[in-house]
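Comment thread on ticket #2218

A.B. wrote:
> Attaching the input chain for the structure job we discussed in standup.
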Amino acid sequence: MSKPILDAVLVAAGKYHDIDFARLELLKLLAEHDNLRVKVCADYADTDAIAKAKFLVTYCCDVRPTQAQQDALAAYVKGGGRWIALHGTNAALDFTPKGVDAPRTIRTLAHTLGSQFIAHPPIQPYHVKVSAPSHPLVSGVKEFDTDDELYLSEYHDRDKLTALLETEYSGKAQGFAAEDWSHTKQHLVMYLRPLGSGSVLYNTLGHCRGHYDMRPVVDFYPKIERCSWDKPEYYELLRRSIRWGLGEI
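C.D. wrote:
> Ran it. Output below, let me know if you need it in another format.
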């Protein structure tokens, strides 16, 4: 039996990450659904395509939509859209003498997403706990260790966010303007943010970087980083996220 053709939009763009790698991996997963037609974008400019999409997927870092685009994204979710937001989608980064700062220049975007990235400690192993074991997005997924950027974020409407995955960290975020995180402990790794008739599914995992992705900060980055992309649990979470975007979860 034929399935209805559905449209999705993938925005994959930004700085300091191997966007080509992430884009290709996400397209492979989206291609597992043969009735999906995916438009790939490098920014949020095509708000018409996003408005018509069954769901939106974003893998970005320091991609700052205009205020009109932020308003359109908020309207998309409030109107019933589903948004799978990955890794640095909520990040705006300024390099300052005091370290990497997170300017509050994307307030509408951060409010829509439910968070804004502020800092992360050096990449190192950490433990990911399942917060809602009965939820179909994580049901049956066992707690796991990953070697990734542990996102330290500022949350919006924290009491309305449904935690799916969490981790614990108290300490320093070296190199960031907001360095001291000794006063915090619990940090969301994956959560649902309801807004209007729609929802955002945010997953902070998935850092990746190749040799040439830190330019102009450094010309050659010595280590290729794949982090949670090396974990089967991450791919399972992404597959379930796509099914959620399709309305199957």
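A.B. wrote:
> Thanks. Noting for the ticket: The longest helix spans residues 232-245.
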